[in-house]
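User: Can you predict the 3D structure for this chain?
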Amino acid sequence: MASIDPTKIKTIKEISRKEIPFALARQPESSRLFIGGSDFKLLEIDPLAEKPEPQEIGGHESYVTGVGLAGGYVISGGYDGRLMWWNAQTREHVRTVEAHAKWIRSVRASADGTLIASVADDMVARLWDAQTGEKIHELRGHAEQTPHHYPSMLYACAFSPDSRQLATADRTGRVVVWDAESGKELTAVEAPEMYTWDPKQRRHSIGGPRSLAFSPDGKLLAVGGMGQVGNIDHLGGQARLEVFDWQSGERTHEFAVGSFKGLVERLAFHPGGDWLLGAGGDNGGFLIFFDLDKKKILHETKAPMHVHDFALSESCDTLFAVGHNRIVVWEMKE
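Assistant: Here is the predicted structure, written as structure tokens:
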């Protein structure tokens, strides 16, 4: 794979939206996107078309906060606790599964296209057969309450590149790695700096890891969130990245990103391991490229919105992102 220079990134398309797009999935080898958002809808759009026109596929009864693409199906998850399967070509509704008792926070598809993972505020991660919608495993390894006796939340999940492991992360910074085949817990690592508790003013907490990504060889697990916050009414903590050798439990990298504040909402490795990209925001947004070999930031830039989700093209020269009232496409050159 040709080396892509993140310092040469530039915006090539920006589309305004009335709703807040929260999640996306990209059709392989194309610019065709499936997007879920605050309007309760699942949409299809090609932002690189001459005249991009979103097409409504269907909807939930609340925010659509997770979208996965596997085996010819688009699977959407929402705050209504439902997972819905749609035919990616015909857009027909295939099935609805009452998946969780509380808000679904994330939906991810395994790289081999056989599994769907969902996590929600009921503190349960579930694995589903991508073709049939059958529940395969129910994964319980996160406490239902924070150490201060308030409800916790299960924010993020990610599959390893070989689809053999699943990682899940909760509000307090606990990250569990599971064996996807057996459903057994393999290990857990902790990122407590991403959790802030205010014992005086609000008696409330904020933070928690919002993004996870395994390295291309599956040995490292990146965890993205936000550092300690002074005023928990705002996303005022520094954007934060921690990386673990998850098998040994060793923390190998730690970045408190002073240039940007807010949550790291999404992480993805370059397939060749050249860099790790994190994106997110507070009132504004950011893109940050990390060089893990040199333990430094390669490049960072503002985004025109708080980024909630993104997808890289196969060659990593095109970045598709969704966030507060926008769909944005960036291009990177060699």
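The domain at 6-331 is CATH 2.130.10.10 (Methylamine Dehydrogenase; Chain H). The chain has one domain: 6-331.
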